[in-house]
Design brief:
4 helices, single chain, elongated, mainly alpha
Amino acid sequence: MTSLFSKAIASINSLFQGLQVKRFLSIVLVGCLLLTTNVAFGNDNQNLTEKVREKVQQNDAQRPKTVGQWNREARETEGNPGERLQRIGQQSGEAFKEFGSGYAEGAKETARDVGEGTANAGKDISNQVRR
């Protein structure tokens, strides 16, 4: 009877030791991954900044694109509210024209994708009906 208890205690003890070894190995593995992973946030941010600048500068609009440009234009027209309102009106028109062209392109693209999806769904259904 005592040997049965001692065997049960021994098996439970070995189970706990196995769990501790597994826990230790998992901690060591995670530590190695964290220490050996090369994370370069600075380079990624630079590339992203450059891509955003290129995208902004692709636009041919004559309106301000950055906060600095907006502030500079506001300083230039500080004493003349009529000119400032005229510029705002022109820039708003350009912005709406850009938005409209982007919206139209997006709608065409969505319609094309929906059409292709419908055609594919029709083919799938016809294949299932033939079987």
